[in-house]
Q: What sequence folds into this?
């Protein structure tokens, strides 16, 4: 299966062929739908075949294969389909994801913090950091630094490297091992951050808008949580 979002996060529509069907669960030969993974929620949208529309309500990667759950049965192996991504949802999550990378880069540079947990969402997202001191004013300053980077309109690029060239500084998640693949996908915010990552991102930091803190929480020893949104 070809995961089209890996090379083009801006692909809104695509054509594909059904290769497997199990009731409402459909596997295609290629897809632009992002599966629920790595703290980023799945895409939604629809598949169209023979004038019939099937709403995509959930997408997951199962045993390395991306499966689309649709709202009704009817698709058959060999059917040609047109996939349409819910673009408003996808683009908001792209902005949130790039914002999360900017925040993790700033927290790591300024305080040596690693991410201990994260969950993106359309309305607000959260990141957990390993920080010794819960200093709200310092955290707010880190967010202002990230917003200053956004205003520089830096390019955000995707590239691939061989696994043997992987280095520890490309992993910002605490306790996470390099992906089990020969090629590693990197998301590169020019001059600011490079991370191994499989999610969708904007092409320029300016598209993020402005990061706004919703709330901060102390989650126990050395674990701090911030909720944020983008405007």
A:
């Amino acid at each position: 299966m070809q995961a089209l979002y890996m090379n083009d996060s801006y692909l809104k529509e695509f054509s594909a062929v059904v290769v497997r069907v199990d009731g409402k669960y459909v596997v295609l030969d290629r897809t632009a739908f992002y599966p629920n993974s790595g703290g980023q929620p799945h895409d939604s949208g629809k598949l169209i075949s023979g004038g019939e529309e099937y709403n995509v309500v959930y997408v997951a990667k199962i045993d390395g294969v991306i499966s689309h759950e649709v709202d009704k049965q009817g698709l058959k192996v060999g059917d040609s389909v047109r996939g349409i991504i819910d673009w408003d949802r996808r683009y908001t999550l792209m902005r949130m994801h790039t914002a999360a990378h900017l925040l993790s880069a700033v927290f790591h540079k300024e305080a040596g913090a690693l991410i201990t947990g994260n969950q993106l969402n359309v309305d607000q997202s959260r990141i957990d950091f390993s920080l010794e001191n819960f200093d709200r004013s310092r955290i707010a300053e880190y967010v202002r630094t990230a917003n200053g980077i956004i205003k520089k309109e830096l390019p955000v690029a995707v590239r691939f490297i061989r696994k043997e060239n992987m280095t520890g500084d490309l992993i910002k998640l605490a306790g996470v091992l390099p992906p089990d693949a020969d090629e590693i996908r990197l998301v590169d915010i020019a001059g600011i951050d490079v991370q191994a990552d499989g999610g969708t991102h904007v092409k320029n930091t300016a598209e993020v808008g402005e990061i706004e803190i919703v709330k901060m929480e102390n989650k126990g020893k050395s674990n701090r949580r911030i909720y944020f949104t983008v405007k």
Q: What stands out?
A: The longest helix spans residues 87-111. Residues 90-230 form a domain with the Threonyl-tRNA Synthetase; Chain A, domain 2 fold (CATH 3.30.980.10). The chain has two domains: 2-85, 90-230. Confidence is low (pLDDT under 50) at residues 174-178.
